[in-house]
Amino acid sequence: MGAKVTLRGKKMVDFLERLIHIVLPRTRDFQGIPQKAIDNQGNLTVAVKEHIVFPEILPEKAKNIFGLEVTVVSSAGSREEGLELFRLLGFPIKKG
Asked: For the chain, what percent of residues have pLDDT higher than 70?
């Protein structure tokens, strides 16, 4: 089963801030986002193994633990532009 949600405006900004500053650091064994997570069109795709890393979700009330994939579509024209854009936005991209 899957679902797709498109966020724009303030909701998008709020979600990305929570993702960058709260969710990714709380992810088990997180070492940064690999550069290969950015495709040739400059879009970023990140997988989160457990949805309970979001602070809004109480782990003791979660019946099932599932993962999710977040794709951030950018207006960058290339992989290099996307890499620079996501670094400037504060995404913890690994060097090299």
From this structure: 99
Give the pLDDT of residue 80: 96
pLDDT digits (tens, 9 = 90+) for 45-60: 999 999 889 989 888 8
Phi, psi (degrees; rounded to nearest 5) at 72: -105, 110
As given in the structure block, the two tokens for residue 68 are 């999710």
Q: Tell whether domain 9-88 is in CATH 3.30.1440.10.
A: yes
Instruction: Name the H helices within 7-94.
Output: 9-18, 24-26, 79-88
pTM for the model: 0.86
94 close to 35: Cβ distance less than 8 angstroms:
yes
| Cβ-proximal residues to 1 (8 Å cutoff; 6+ apart), any chain | none
Residue 34 tokens read as: 């690999």
**Whole-angstrom Cα distance, residue 86 to residue 92?**
8
